[in-house]
Design a protein that fits this description.
By secondary structure, the protein is of the alpha+beta class. It has one domain (about 1-130): Transferase(Phosphotransferase) domain 1 (Transferase(Phosphotransferase), domain 1, Orthogonal Bundle). The protein is built from five helices and seven strands; from the N terminus they run βααββααββββα. The chain has a three-stranded antiparallel beta sheet with strand order 1-3-2. Strands 4-7 form a two-stranded antiparallel sheet. A hairpin with a 3-residue loop joins strand 2 (about 40-45) and strand 3 (about 50-55). The protein is globular, with a radius of gyration of 17 Å. The N and C termini lie far apart (about 50 Å). The model has no long low-confidence stretch (mean pLDDT about 90).
């Protein structure tokens, strides 16, 4: 297991409780996708909130690229397919991750990708999309 600890005072001070709740909601909604980190449990004590995740022991895609310098074409194709599957799933559930980058793609024990950090994710609302498209 891996534990993410979030200080309650910091959450209050920064006014980001909605980010924390949204992250939990999206992780629950995406729990069946093989390339999304599995949220096993949540909890809290007087000072902290805790997210308990499956472990991804092989670091991040960023670390892999930095260490190896160059990945084979077959490895790149495999990761591209996993990312395409992730994007398709996110789009089908109307979720915009908004921070997908190699640092947020963990590698599990079989070197498969696991998307993490849904704190900036948002549910896409067609009405909001249309509002954003209007020229000012």
């Amino acid at each position: 297991m891996a534990i993410k600890e979030v200080n309650k005072d910091k959450v209050d001070k920064l006014g980001i409780i909605h980010h924390i709740m949204r992250e939990k909601e999206f992780l629950s909604e995406l729990k069946d996708h093989p390339n999304v980190i599995e949220l096993l449990a949540t909890g809290q004590d007087d000072t902290n909130l805790y997210f308990i995740f499956e472990v991804s022991p092989n670091g991040t895609l960023y670390q892999l690229c930095t260490q190896r310098g160059k990945l084979s074409m077959d490895v790149c194709r495999g990761y591209a397919a996993q990312i395409a599957s992730l994007l398709d799933c996110l789009q089908s559930k109307q979720i915009s991750h908004r921070d997908m980058k190699p640092h947020n793609l963990m590698l599990d024990e079989r070197m498969n990708l696991k998307l993490i950090d849904f704190g900036d994710a948002k549910k896409m609302d067609e009405a909001e999309d249309k509002e954003e498209e209007k020229p000012t």
